[in-house]
Design brief:
The complex is a heterodimer of chains A (795) and B (339).
Chain A: E1 2-4, H1 5-8, H2 18-27, E2 31-38, E3 43-55, E4 63-68, E5 73-78, E6 88-98, E7 102-104, E8 107-109, E9 112-114, E10 116-118, H3 154-157, E11 162-168, H4 179-189, E12 215-218, E13 224-233, H5 242-250, H6 258-270, E14 274-278, E15 286-291, E16 297-299, E17 305-307, E18 313-316, E19 321-324, E20 328-329, E21 342-349, H7 351-361, H8 366-371, H9 379-393, E22 398-399, E23 404-406, E24 414-417, H10 420-427, H11 433-442, E25 446-448, E26 451-454, H12 464-475, H13 496-510, E27 514-515, E28 521-522, H14 524-529, E29 550-551, H15 556-568, E30 574-584, E31 597-607, H16 613-626, E32 633-636, E33 642-652, E34 655-663, H17 665-670, E35 678-683, H18 684-690, E36 706-715, H19 720-731, E37 735-744, E38 753-762, H20 771-789, E39 792-793
Parallel strand pairs in A: 12-15, 27-30
Antiparallel strand pairs in A: 1-11, 2-11, 3-4, 3-6, 4-5, 6-7, 6-10, 8-9, 13-21, 13-22, 13-23, 14-21, 15-18, 16-17, 18-19, 19-20, 24-26, 25-26, 28-29, 30-31, 31-35, 32-33, 33-34, 34-35, 36-38, 36-39, 37-38
Helix pairs in contact in A: 5-6, 6-9, 10-12, 11-12, 13-16, 13-18, 19-20
Chain B: H1 2-18, H2 22-33, H3 38-44, H4 53-90, H5 109-123, E1 127-128, E2 134-136, H6 137-140, E3 160-162, E4 165-167, H7 172-181, E5 186-195, E6 207-218, H8 222-237, E7 243-250, E8 253-262, E9 279-288, H9 290-295, E10 303-311, H10 312-320, H11 327-330, H12 333-336
Parallel strand pairs in B: 1-5
Antiparallel strand pairs in B: 2-4, 3-4, 5-6, 6-10, 7-8, 8-9, 9-10
The chains are: A alpha+beta (795), B alpha+beta (339).
Chain lengths: 795, 339
């Protein structure tokens, strides 16, 4: 909300500068976003009179003038063609400043000295429409009688100085959406008296059912709490007086004509949006406040046709809607130059209804913004009286004495208990009762013994917690004590899952991976690029665009996207990891109100000189070890987006807990990555679940180990894992370790053959192994390798 | 004979001194002390001496022997040291040659900030709570005193999945889940991703990260809130950090405040980061609204609490001087590796 300090002066003597006022208001809860100081950027511009005009000797389009600027006569060269001798004009002297950081100095124009500049309306930062008779491209010609101001500062003469504050009004303070409310806050903030010039507006007016044949009925009493109307006769629609236009303008409201300006002026001043109709446009002279019919339409003041439905409230006559209640009036009932009788409306509507309507028709107006914060029906009386008062003051028409007031359920005065000790307890302070009383009374909250009478405009105050805020914001947030909690002590600790996440994160960083962050919503195209099915993906109803419309069910798209970004930037040897969530609507029940399955995952990927399948496998094993998962199986993965021959999946029992491998070449192509990328994803919650945390010490072996090497030749497609399975099955519990130390292929071995060599370490916990035992075991292993894998022993 | 021994001693002494390496020294040892050495020969020749002289000369020989041995040992030590020095000298390498360091990765600046904050609050006895990103409006709005007609529920601020489920626009939903399931005392922080319908630009992102805190117990006061945040600000941003409470409004706290911290870039003198204000707006906070406590079945006559929340990105950006939020989500390693 924008307001000029000049208007605030009606309510409080502002005896501090704009910056100080803004700071004090901000610290008491009315946050000033910006301070605009009009006229401040005009310096050394004075009123001058043209004494003489001559042609420029060397330029057809220029003239050389002599101008009286009060203390002396100066020569000014200009290209303007709307000036003549004797004209009174604004002169920017040598060393002057104009808006937009323009500095004027004496200079030469085609060889002739010019000691300043004549100013146009625009050059002074003003608008032509605010100065009737002036032109856009030409010098501002001041009235002849301004001769008396010769040499005087133009800022003073035209009264250009205006300080405007722009407030951020929070949704709980509809009262501060008015000059009156801000005036009250300003007075308190700078410690001066609130002048309350409009205290007489609550006076009751004689109530009638009909004025000049006009009747009002509220059909939708749940959406309209009060409707007041007064009539203005003998109306002369014309331009508003300068002071009114100026104030509206300062608040960012365009002046239309005196009647419309009055409604806007009252809205800004009192905080109640108003409306004015031409009585002759109200068919049947009957105003009906009702729900719109489905598919009913109205053309609003901005000449747009709006479609309505029965959730919306309209002001209608006997035939059609004349306004969307609380949002915007209709073009059919607006004030025109021919208007002779005006109906002023001051009504109060249900806040939620206005908000939803404004949203549906896509119109957010000054009126709807105020209504949706919640106004008290009591405000209507003061507003309508003010409108009539202003109309008579500026001679816009003659008010009919009576008022129509449809007020089905009068709002009761709110009274809450005054509990100073509770206030202090909540604050942890010791503010004396009388200080609180002083603060509350300044806010127009009446202290009546143990009760507080809340003024109608403070719709936000309902209970002691609200009083706590009123007291402390005026007393000063800066005076709050600074204490530490005086309560039972608690122990802060991380959960197993949180600790594991930290551990894995550290491990990956140590292995050279950098952590990345990504948005968890992606596009259908991302799903396609990674050969993923999006049927279990959750769709956002109002996404920022198709690119961000589906929640991810898999970590691969975001990780690969970032790998591609790095690849395209020619970054070498890139390793990234992401800790994030996937969202799967497994049962397709989200529209029945059931939340999807969210699971925390850690994905990592690498390309470059050290990247290969076994590096990634090693890191996965490191993570398994860090998670204390000892029993797991590794199997070939069956995943469309990984290389079928170079990918694996880790299982605990039948539960898949991790996948890794080389990204499928087609997927890489989709991302334009021309280099092998290795990827792994682990399901963090499962790692935490299967990780044992009951570590026990195992005795360091006392008995010696026996080492034996074995080399066998097998078919190429026998996996070493199969060989290891045979070895460990046959060696039973005396095998300590089987370490692969060589895989060898040669023509001599034959096509599709490989030689695999292991070092086997045998050891028993309870005795020294005998030669016989070892020999028998070796024999059993060899036999089984021959029998099941067709292995041949190498000499 | 005494003279002979003295002569041997003197000769040995000279030869020891002149020995250039361990081998020469060993030769000296053999020459004088070996089985066929000169001193041994003297001992052997003692048979010709009178019984009175024998012990005297014997002792004299032994003394000489001890002395020579001692000198040899000393020299040996000396020579060994010399040899080692020479060896080390030879092994000298060019220390300016490139290292063989194993590349280390990096933690994302947002994680860095969140981890730091977690540590501070763990130390103050808080637990870390988590909840779903895709959340019921019941937890995100209804229970937080933000009824259906409240402007915060506008479609333009929140991503909706359907009428009853949204992408959480604040992590306060986690607070409700905790309050509904746990009796006071409650002391938690909830870090996590939140979603708002803002287009991507240098200062906005539709996804960002919040850390909220909640304390509910008997006798919790607004002064406690200020003290807690002051402690936090000093530990997170430096001992000289000052904080400033400004009145504000949130539907779920009453009274509410916005908190500024003295600019940790310029120490409050005024700079580009704080737009010459000397203060940086850091977080929102307040006393938990009694309605919110009651919604969760907590008696607001017995218990009170405070809550606060702030954005990790804002802190990370101010702390590291990052001027474009998009950098945080682009994941260029040349950016990531700086942290």
């Amino acid at each position: 909300m924008k307001t000029s300090i000049e208007w605030l002066q009606d309510y409080a003597d502002i005896n501090v500068d704009a910056k100080t006022l803004a700071d004090r208001l901000t610290m008491t809860g009315s946050k000033v976003e910006t301070i605009e100081q009009k006229g401040k950027d005009i310096k050394n511009v004075v009123v001058g009179k043209i004494l003489e005009i001559k042609k420029h000797p060397d330029a057809d389009k220029l003239i050389v003038t002599k101008v009286d600027i009060g203390d002396k006569v100066v020569q000014i060269v200009t290209g303007a063609d709307n000036v003549k001798e004797e004209d009174i004009i604004p002169i920017a002297k040598d060393g002057s400043e104009l808006p937009g950081n323009v500095k004027i100095k004496t200079g030469m124009l085609r060889g002739v000295e010019s000691c300043g500049m004549m100013c146009s309306v625009g050059e002074l930062g003003l608008k032509v429409e605010d100065y009737p008779g002036q032109i856009e491209h030409g010098i501002m010609i001041l009235p002849k009688e301004y001769k008396k101001f010769l040499g005087k500062d133009i800022v003073e003469v035209l009264n250009l100085r205006e300080d405007i504050l722009d407030f951020e009004i929070t949704s709980n303070r509809p009262d501060c959406f008015s000059i009156e409310g801000l005036g009250r806050e300003a007075a308190i903030a700078i410690g001066t008296e609130f002048k309350n010039p409009r205290k007489n507006l609550s006076k009751e007016v004689k109530e009638v059912k009909e004025i000049e044949g006009l009747k009002v009925d509220i059909e939708a009493k749940d959406l309209c709490y009060r409707y007041m109307a007064r009539v203005l006769k003998d109306v002369k629609v014309e331009t508003s007086p300068e002071w009114m236009r100026r104030r509206l303008n300062a608040c960012g409201v365009r002046s239309i004509n005196n009647i419309v300006d009055i409604t806007n002026y009252v809205m800004l001043e009192i905080g109640e949006p108003m409306h004015a109709f031409d009585i002759n446009c109200v068919k049947g002279k009957h105003i009906i406040v009702r729900r719109a019919k489905n598919n009913e339409t109205i053309t609003t003041l901005d000449d747009e046709e709006r479609k309505l439905d029965n959730s919306m409230l309209v002001i209608a006559d006997e035939e059609e809607p004349v306004a969307i209640a609380g949002v915007m009036g209709g073009a059919n009932s607006g004030i025109s130059d021919e208007t002779k009788t005006v109906v002023f409306e001051a009504a109060v509507f249900n806040r939620g209804s206005i908000r939803l309507t404004a949203k549906k028709v896509g119109l957010r107006t000054e009126a709807s913004t105020r209504y949706e914060k919640g106004l008290s029906p009591e405000i209507a009386l003061r507003a309508i009286n003010r409108a009539v008062e202003l109309a008579e003051q500026i001679g816009a028409g003659k008010a009919v004495e009576e008022v129509i007031d449809v007020y089905p359920e009068k709002e009761e005065k709110r009274v809450i208990k005054f509990e100073p000790e509770k206030v202090n307890k909540a604050l942890g302070m010791d503010i004396p009762r009388e200080t609180m009383v002083e603060i509350l009374e300044k806010l127009d909250i009446k202290v009546n013994g143990d009760n507080l009478e809340i003024p109608y405009f403070r719709t936000d105050i309902e209970r002691t917690a609200d009083i706590v805020e009123e007291v402390i914001r005026i007393y000063g947030y800066d005076k709050l004590n600074s204490t530490l909690i005086n309560a039972e002590s608690t122990v802060g600790s991380k959960t197993k899952l949180q600790k594991l996440e930290d551990k894995i994160k550290e491990l990956l960083v140590e292995k050279g991976f950098s952590e990345m962050y990504a948005f968890s919503f992606i596009s259908q195209e991302d799903y396609d690029k990674c050969k993923l099915d999006s049927s279990e993906a959750i769709r956002i109803k109002n996404p920022l665009g198709e690119d961000y419309s589906l929640m991810r069910t898999n970590m691969m798209p975001t990780v690969l996207q970032s790998m591609a970004t790095n690849y395209n930037k020619k970054n070498k040897d890139v390793s990234l990891f992401e800790i994030g969530k996937t969202y799967v609507d497994e049962k397709q029940n989200i529209d029945k109100g059931e939340l999807p399955v969210e699971s925390k995952q850690i994905a990592f990927a690498t390309y470059g000189k050290n990247a290969d399948f076994y590096i990634v496998k090693g890191i996965v094993e490191n993570i398994l070890e860090a998670s204390n998962i000892a029993r797991y199986q590794i199997e070939r993965a069956n995943t469309k987006n990984l290389h079928p021959g170079r990918s694996a999946e880790i299982f605990v029992g039948k539960d898949s807990i991790a996948k890794f491998g080389e990204i499928h070449p087609q997927v890489l192509e989709n991302y334009g990555i021309n280099e092998k990328v290795y990827y792994a994803v682990i399901e963090l919650e499962k790692f935490a679940k299967y990780g044992k945390d009951n570590k026990k010490y195992v005795q360091i072996p006392k008995y010696p180990a026996v080492e034996r090497d074995i080399a066998i030749v097998v078919d190429e497609d026998i996996a070493v894992g199969q060989i290891e399975n045979v070895i460990s099955k046959k060696a039973k519990n005396i095998l300590e370790k089987a370490e692969l130390f060589d895989v060898y292929r040669s023509e001599k071995l034959g096509n599709n053959k490989k030689s695999v060599a292991y070092e086997l370490i045998f050891r028993a916990q309870d005795r020294t192994l005998t030669d016989d035992e070892i020999s028998n075991t070796m024999e059993a292993i060899i036999k089984e390798l021959q029998a099941t894998l067709g292995a041949e022993l190498r000499a | 004979m005494k003279d002979q021994i003295l002569k041997i001693k003197e000769n040995a002494n000279n030869e020891i001194k002149n020995a250039k390496d361990l081998k020469e020294l060993n030769d000296v040892r053999v020459k004088y002390l070996g089985k066929k050495g000169e001193l041994t020969a003297v001992l052997r020749g003692m048979g010709a001496l009178s019984p009175e002289e024998r012990p005297i000369i014997g002792e004299f020989v032994n003394e000489a022997r001890d002395e020579i041995e001692k000198l040899i040992d000393q020299k040996e030590q000396e020579l060994k040291e010399q040899e080692l020095l020479q060896k080390l000298e030879k092994e000298k390498i060019d220390i300016t040659m490139p290292s063989k360091k194993i590349p280390v990765g990096s933690v994302h600046p947002i994680t860095g900030v969140i981890d730091n904050i977690k540590e501070i609050f763990l130390g103050l006895g808080y637990e870390i709570a988590d909840g779903p990103d895709i959340e019921k409006t019941y937890y995100v709005f209804d229970q937080l005193n933000t009824p259906i007609d409240h402007p915060a529920r506008d479609l333009q601020d929140t991503f909706y999945i359907n009428d009853n489920i949204v992408l959480r626009s604040q992590t306060s939903s986690v607070q409700i889940r905790v309050m509904e399931n746990q009796k006071p005392p409650i002391k938690i922080i909830c870090p996590g991703a939140v979603y708002r319908s803002d287009s991507v630009d240098p200062t906005h992102s539709p996804v960002f990260h919040q850390i909220e805190g909640l304390v509910v117990d008997k006798n919790i006061t607004m002064s406690d809130l200020k003290g807690t945040l002051e402690t936090f600000a000093k530990r997170c941003l430096g001992e000289n950090t000052k904080i400033r409470f400004r009145p504000h409004h949130f539907p779920y706290t009453e009274p509410s405040a916005e908190v500024d911290v003295s600019c940790f870039v310029c120490n409050g003198k005024g700079c580009r980061v704080c737009k010459n204000e000397g203060w940086i707006e850091l977080l929102g906070c307040g006393m938990v609204h009694p309605k919110v406590l009651e919604n969760c079945g907590i008696d607001s006559n017995i218990y009170s609490g405070f809550a606060f929340g702030f954005g990790a990105e804002r802190i990370a950006m101010a702390k590291y001087g990052i001027d474009d939020m998009r950098l945080l989500f682009e994941n260029d390693v040349r950016f990531l590796k700086q942290f």
